[in-house]
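__Record contents__

***
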Amino acid sequence: MAGTAGPKRQDTRKYFENLDGAGKCIAVLTSGGDAQGMNAAVRAVVRMGIYVGAKVYFIHEGYQGMVDGGDNIIEATWESVSSMLQVGGTVIGSARCKEFRTHEGRLKAALNLVKHSITNLCVIGGDGSLTGANLFREEWSGLLNELVEQGLVSEEEVRSNSELHIVGMVGSIDNDFCGTDMTIGTDSALHRIIEVVDAIMTTAQSHQRTFVLEVMGRHCGYLAMVSALACGADWVFIPEMPPEDDWEDVMCQKLSENRAERKRLNIIIVAEGAIDCHNKPITCDYIKDLVVRRLGFDTRVTILGHVQRGGTPSAFDRILASRMGVEAVLALLEASDSDNTPACVVSLVGNQAVRLPLMECVQMTQEVQKAMDEKKFEDAVRLRGRYFTQVSVYVDKLVIYVTTDFHPQSSFNVAVLNVGAPAAGMNGAVRSAVRVGITEGHKMFAVNDGFEGFYKGQIKEIKWGDVGGWTGQGGSLLGTKRTLPGAHLDKIAEQMRIYNINALLVIGGFEAYVGLLELSTARDKYNEFCVPMVMVPATVSNNIPGSDLSIGSDTALNAITDTCDRIKQSASGTKRRVFIIETMGGYCGYLATVGGLAAGADTVYIYEEPFDIRDLQANVEHLTQKMKTSIQRGLVLRNENCNENFNTDFIYQLYSEEGQGVFDCRKNILGHMQQGGAPSPFDRNFGTKVAAKAIQWVTKTLKESFKGGRVFTNSPDTACLLGMRRRAMVFQPVSQLRDETDFVHRIPKEQWWLKLRPLMKILAKYKTSYDVSDSGQLEHVTQIRPRETKTSADI
């Protein structure tokens, strides 16, 4: 594969080449309920294990297969995990095993592992599966002694298998495991839910119906909570936040008010484990009967059931599972027989993979249920972690307990506009900003067509009901253009004077960032710009400095991944075919790289990693060797501006010529389909939370800068960009980000995702260096949450 991932910093980086897997045996199993993305995790474990020289084994049917042994434990090959990435469920099977819960069952399992010299176990499952693995590890020495006494293993076998190392990955669609922001399968389950809700909303609107939808979540309300935010539901019920005694009256009043404002449908989301404050279950049928009896609305119930577990894994789950799988193998390689390394679980915190002690996470997860049993519901929400807590706050503001008849009033006017190219999720961000702004007491104004509409005076007040149903809409309903404000500062200042705009929220891409820079620079000349200004990144290219992620990029990734899946499937009959696919992104290779990781690409060409004709020739040779195996297809992604000479046609013609007699080629330019479509659940949720956080910052800054009867502030920290940096959401002055920006190519000078490129190459069987500087630190659950500061705020 072309080039390297940037200059090596010998003093600070650590590379995994020092970790040798030769002579080690790793086994991977999936246990408990299945979850989309488990196969991506299995694939990553197998390929990373083989890459470092270890033997890797599948254990089919979970712990049952470990107990039964025989053909359930088989050695994996590189080719055996091909075509797994896009398959839902788990292809190696999962089963709930009563026998493993007994000492005799674990003794059989130990014997089967020893016979295969397996001393490294990667378990993908929920808290029950991981607890079982930890118990197995703690008993390991005793189990080996019993096997010796029974004459089933030799003393030599005991010595060579004296320690069992365990690493867990959480596969659970409920996202009910403490210590990680997201579990494998959660995002895909949200995709299934949102697909159903979007479909139901069209029929509900036609007939003015109320729909009550039950989603999974017997003990955890995450799916219900996030899907309610993502679809703009009218009400949501979850186990951790039971409603007050008068909830029936309050809910019916809200539904009635919504209909009075000519809203033609109502959506109520119910987690299957929903309860009231007396621990009494709240069922869909009870809610339906209540609405029919009190309001007379035509009401239907839909129970989604196991649809949520099925289907293709989302791009997010494939990337998450691939990162976790590689991290799990690294953790096993670094575990030492002498230091009694505790069993760990690989988790996601913010945008970073971390390792946490397995039992700390399990114990905190069990504490949640204990708190709920004791009716300490606030403690239960807090114990779920910062991610769950923050989402619950926005649900409180945007779904539950919000009525349209009363809001505190302030004297502040806040304007919202979209700038740059459209990105899926922009509308959800605008909706969130408007409604949170209204609950904060502000008068909200919408600016149509970006800065161009601003200087032309296309400004109007926007109210609560005006943004109803916006979360599921793609594109930009406000209208957006790439026009920069620099040439129109006089007219924009005049419009801010006319409408008495006291604060500005800009949602958009690189033009929004440059525009905010221009406005903040002009503060010396125009007092009108001496107001709080904040930008929220929204662009499919994900090329904004100061933020690891942008609204819209996840939807684009899913479009790329879905298309690549179909293209790969089309080669299943023809064989020996290579596809060259061009992605968007300008000069930023994020979509190509991360899309390639999610789709299982063989090669990805990007601007940030220069390549020449020798690299292209090496890639062709790599595909030629691949065609000699049982995997007779290839996938090559090319960022649209990766090289002005080696364009898509050139690469297609080169591969066609050099591959003659070995493979044939096809090309596909994805184009603007990456920018369109309904926003993904992640983009809806991310946009909602980030915009709400931005408005809360605006409120706080307005209060601090209101003096002498007017708002005035010109300090750099009041013209900010709100972005995700590793583990936290951070407000950063745009003036400080100037030095981090390559303005010629419209990209940040340093980009976190470049660290994923070696991982992608390894999984495609290329020899490369992989920087593991961020790996290897076993943290503790209580230490992974950064405290919120003046400049840093968690999602």
About this structure: The mean pLDDT is 90. The two ends are 36 Å apart (CA to CA). DSSP finds 24 helices and 28 strands in the chain.
